[in-house]
Known about the structure:
Strand order of the largest sheet: 3-2-1-4-5-6-7-8
Number of strands: 14
Radius of gyration: 24 Å
Structural class: alpha/beta
Strand content: 5-15%
Helix content: 40-55%
Shape: elongated
Number of helices: 18
CATH class of the largest domain: Alpha Beta
CATH architecture of the largest domain: 3-Layer(aba) Sandwich
Number of domains: 2
Oligomer: single chain
Distance between the termini: 61 Å
CATH topology of the largest domain: Rossmann fold
Bound molecules: uridine-5'-diphosphate-glucuronic acid
Amino acid sequence: MPDSLVPASLTLSVIGVGYLGAVHAAAMAELGHRVIGLDVDQARIDALSEGQSPFHEPGFDELLRRNVDSGRLTFTTDYTELADVDVHFLALGTPQRDDGLGADLSYIHSALDALTSILEARNGKPTLIAGKSTVPVGTARELHARITSIDGVALAWNPEFLREGFAVEDTLRPDRLVYGVADQSAADQEIGLLDAVYAELLDLEIPRKVYNFESAELVKVSANSFLATKISFINAISELCDVTGADVNDVAEAIGMDDRIGPKFLRAGIGFGGGCLPKDIRGLISRAGELGTVDSFAFLRDIDAINQGRREYVVRLAKRLLEGSVDGKRIAVLGAAFKPDTDDVRDSPALDIALKLYSEGARVIITDPVANENVRGRYPSFHVEDSTEETLRDADLVLLLTEWKQYRDLDPRTAKELVSKAQIIDGRNALDLDTWRDAGWQVEALGRP
Ligand code: UGA
């Protein structure tokens, strides 16, 4: 599409304002666009419209409030308000299906159903649908077939790589922009509109890659699967360290100095969780099965199994420290979120371990700096404490399972005064072992002597 045909000011929609969509909507408004966020969840729309974030994400509250106050960012549940939108971003959830490992695409299809009459009423005015959700390879081509008869409407797949805890920074300063298009030799409209959306980022020379749909979809799931592989790899090595006396932090440090390997995502511990890595590796296994390449993805089942095994490993370690049984023992769990700087407890390794111990009769007390309400909402019978001191009080065993700064910075001497028995499992290799041992603690770190 020639530059002269790209509207001088763009109106965007973001359909689905969960974690990804809400951040994307506010960030696009920050880039100067008029943005309408749409969701079927009225309570969420009400909160966002008042500038209130429904989740904990550093920097997001200010970004949201600033752009709601400026009038550039509004929220609605009503599709008819999207009539003047030039670019619709699809940021709907694609959760794991109840009946298997694959992704549930029903939210995306419903959104497209609801959007169809709006797109038709544009009467040929250039409009783009840009998918941001993580989808199985082949999805964009299928969705494209659904919209191709509507005059003036194009589809691109524009995967998102943001990390929770760094979502604002990752959206406004991404490593790369990927545009997946139906036909790379005839994608002027898709490229023209997306370049106009991301003009400010392109000025910063953030690399922008135009691929076909399938490559763009695979970039996203491959990235997450590779990251998951790195974590399970170092966790497998960590188990070998435990039986040989090697230190996994030393191994990770030295292999990470090889820039073909790199130092990141080699932190051994209780493994990965959250709404993305576990779901995406299972989605890839499932899709590979449908496409007849399942044998080459057997390793990803092992990556998943190693990761789940870490949770059992900690439960066994807890039993060993408590002379064979956790029944009736008071266990303090520090951290419930799947990682620090988020209140997201989806597939949280910390919470999973806490629940396993609870089901074996332990008196588990769990605390988290920001995720307590989410834990209470999901597990009303669970003992959730707001104060770290009260969590630690009289504990027979302490488990550090999410490496929040306040737990890494705990003073072992003060903590020792509170507990019944000074023993701790460092599930994230986050503590300075010498300091804790000097203060009289028995410390079990995963993969460290
Ligand atoms: C992940 C990807 O990192 C993002 O690039 C991607 O955009 C996102 O999924 C997504 O698909 O939307 P996120 O789920 O926010 O982001 O979390 P990560 O930072 O990747 O961490 C995932 C898990 O791995 C956490 O439980 C973390 O504690 C664990 N982890 C991470 C380790 O156990 N060891 C490490 O060395 C690093």
